[in-house]
Every structure is written in structure tokens, then in C-alpha cells.
């Protein structure tokens, strides 16, 4: 039986204090909103590019390119805004937190995406929508109501690094940090 290659993605990690606040917020929503899976606090992140399976050589090449990008990109501010959903209005696939976006985040994501392509990864070409996933797959007995979503206090932090994660669905947490790239200060 052929063993599957691990999957990877590049993302902006969240500071522990933001993760803790988001988790407390998420647990308060859990009482009212019935989703099949609630994301663990340790797995919160903002995806820049999903990579899928990768060889060691491909990852080594990608690490070189990401180091080049982060050595020329300054830290920038990020801010949480409000809650949204992906999927059907009355039975959403994903409950997520919107991130106040600025040019710096989109520039960084575009450079990361181009580096991924250069190394041979197939990247998502849809418009980039930075977000933090809180829960997946609505399981409520009644249709999901958007008026159930309370407002989120605006939390702000400085993005100063990118992390390369390996996905391991058999492990808790599911995402293992493999490498970290600091933005230049």
C-alpha cells in the first residue's frame, strides 16, 4: 500500500493572546450554533497558500523562496472584525472571522503564491479572502440564522512571521509547525 505524502500550507500564525480570546469567543458561540467541528485554539491561523502534498526537494526550494520574500517584507498590523460564513445561507460549510485587510497582507500573499507556483505547486487562483476558520459543517435542526452572530470585539496585533505547517488529521492539534520565517524589522 502506497503511503500518502503529507500535505502542507503556508499561513500567518496568531499570537497566543489572540488565539485565547478567539477560542473563548468561539466557545460562547458553540452554545447557540451547531457545527460538526469546532477548530482547536492551537489550529487558528490565516492561510496564505495551501500547498497539498510535497516532496522534500520541493519544500527545500520553497523555503529558500519564502526566506527571500520575508527578508524584504516588513511586519504589518492585522485586526479581527466580524463573523461570516461560506456556503449555503441556512446551512453554512464554514463559520469564520473576517480580518481587516490592508495592502501589506495582499502583497505578501501574492508574493507567496507566486513563489509556490515557481516551485511547482498548484495554487488556488480564486480571489484571496483572508480569514480565520472557527467551525465547519452546520448540523443544526433549524436553518442557520445570520442574526445569531454577535459582533466581535476588534482585536489587533502585528504580523511578524509566516509559518509552514504540515497537516496531520490523525493528530491533535491537526497542524504541525515545520518552519518559521520572520518578517524583516
From TrEMBL:
Coiled coil: none annotated. A motif (HXTX 2) lies at residues 131-134. The keyword ATP-binding does not apply. Keywords: Hydrolase. Its EC number is 3.1.4.58. It catalyses: a 3'-end 2',3'-cyclophospho-ribonucleotide-RNA + H2O = a 3'-end 2'-phospho-ribonucleotide-RNA + H(+). A motif (HXTX 1) lies at residues 45-48. Hydrolyzes RNA 2',3'-cyclic phosphodiester to an RNA 2'-phosphomonoester. Belongs to the 2H phosphoesterase superfamily. ThpR family. HAMAP family: RNA_CPDase. This is RNA 2',3'-cyclic phosphodiesterase. It comes from Chengkuizengella axinellae. The gene is thpR.
Amino acid at each position: 500500500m502506497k503511503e500518502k505524502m503529507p500535505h502542507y500550507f503556508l499561513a500567518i500564525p496568531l499570537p497566543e493572546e489572540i488565539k485565547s480570546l478567539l477560542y473563548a469567543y468561539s466557545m460562547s458561540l458553540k452554545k447557540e450554533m451547531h457545527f460538526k467541528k469546532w477548530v482547536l485554539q492551537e489550529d487558528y491561523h490565516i492561510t496564505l497558500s495551501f500547498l497539498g502534498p510535497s516532496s522534500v526537494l520541493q519544500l527545500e526550494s520553497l523555503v529558500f523562496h519564502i526566506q527571500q520574500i520575508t527578508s524584504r517584507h516588513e511586519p504589518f498590523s492585522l485586526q479581527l472584525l466580524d463573523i461570516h460564513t461560506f456556503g449555503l445561507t441556512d446551512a453554512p460549510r464554514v463559520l469564520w472571522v473576517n480580518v481587516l485587510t490592508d495592502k501589506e497582507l495582499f502583497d505578501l500573499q501574492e508574493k507567496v503564491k507566486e513563489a509556490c507556483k515557481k516551485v511547482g505547486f498548484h495554487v488556488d487562483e480564486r480571489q484571496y479572502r483572508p480569514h480565520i476558520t472557527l467551525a465547519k459543517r452546520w448540523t443544526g435542526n433549524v436553518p442557520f440564522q445570520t442574526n445569531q452572530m454577535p459582533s466581535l470585539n476588534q482585536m489587533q496585533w502585528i504580523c511578524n512571521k509566516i509559518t509552514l505547517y504540515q497537516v496531520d488529521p490523525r493528530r491533535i492539534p491537526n497542524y504541525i509547525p515545520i518552519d518559521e520565517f520572520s518578517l524583516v524589522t
